[in-house]
């Protein structure tokens, strides 16, 4: 829109000019701003106050540089909403300071501060409007609410689909489980039939081989009996021969023992006579 292309540079020109004046501020202006800087540092938290320069000249130069940069961005239409918000913050210290213009004893300085307050309020209103200008596009808040609404609608639409999908999945799972159970039962019955058939075949084979095994055992027993019968006379002769040898050895030993007993008896008899 052409109106924005005209209004933004006009609004930005005031900040660019103010920033240039701050960069070229003479010593009296710096001395006047020093109490404002000190009061601002005292009002801020300790960790934030350490970031703010204690020297008014440095603070004015930083504020002026920010105003020049923000003004150029606003004038050229680059991130105008962000630039406008930044420019609004640069007006806060001077607006607060000029707001107490009635405390000024010098009439000329009091009037100057009053005019400066009015000017700052006007500029502040302008940059606040510029920061809220979406150029006809939906704002962030509206887009956020729209996305939340779309998400709620999508969720509401997805719930029935999810429920149907869950029911379908459960039904399919139940059908599959029934089919698996039936297949398992059929396989179990088949395995049982095969086991029963194999057991019957094994029983028949055992019954067929039992007479043969019995005959083999009987023949083996007869063979062992014949072997024992054949070896019995020899074993008996060996036992008789061994018994005869033992008898001769016992007779010889008994004769020797009897002779020794007679000799010892005679010796004892002679001892008693003497």
TrEMBL record:
Q: What is its main location?
A: membrane
Compartments it resides in: Membrane
Q: Does the keyword Transmembrane apply?
A: yes
Key word Transmembrane helix present: yes
State the UniProt keywords alphabetically. Answer: Membrane, Transmembrane, Transmembrane helix
Q: What membrane topology does the UniProt entry give?
A: Multi-pass membrane protein
Q: Which domain of life is it from?
A: Bacteria
Which InterPro entries does the entry link to?
Answer: DoxX
Q: What is this protein called?
A: DoxX family protein
**Species name:** Gordonia alkaliphila
């Amino acid at each position: 829109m052409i109106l924005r292309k005209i209004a933004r540079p006009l609004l930005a020109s005031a900040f660019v000019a103010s920033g240039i004046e701050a960069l070229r501020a003479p010593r009296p202006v710096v001395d006047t701003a020093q109490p404002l800087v000190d009061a601002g540092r005292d009002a801020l938290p300790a960790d934030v106050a350490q970031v703010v320069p204690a020297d008014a000249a440095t603070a004015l130069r930083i504020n002026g540089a920010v105003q020049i940069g923000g003004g150029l961005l606003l004038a050229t239409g680059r991130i105008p909403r962000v630039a406008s918000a930044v420019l609004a913050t640069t007006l806060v210290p001077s607006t607060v300071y000029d707001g107490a213009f009635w405390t000024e004893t010098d009439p000329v300085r009091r009037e100057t501060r009053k005019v400066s307050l009015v000017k700052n309020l006007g500029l502040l209103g302008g940059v606040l409007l510029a920061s809220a200008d979406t150029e006809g596009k939906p704002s962030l808040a509206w887009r956020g609410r729209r996305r939340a609404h779309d998400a709620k609608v999508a969720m509401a639409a997805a719930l029935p689909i999810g429920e149907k999908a869950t029911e379908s999945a459960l039904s399919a799972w139940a059908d599959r489980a029934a089919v698996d159970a039936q297949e398992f039962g059929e396989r179990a019955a088949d395995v049982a039939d095969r086991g029963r058939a194999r057991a019957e075949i094994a029983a028949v084979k055992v019954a067929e081989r039992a007479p043969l095994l019995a005959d083999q055992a009987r023949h083996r027993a007869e063979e062992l009996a014949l072997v024992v019968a054949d070896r019995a006379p020899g074993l008996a002769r060996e036992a008789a021969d061994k018994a005869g040898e033992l008898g001769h050895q016992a007779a010889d030993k008994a004769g020797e023992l009897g002779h020794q007993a007679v000799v010892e008896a005679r010796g004892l008899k002679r001892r008693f006579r003497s």
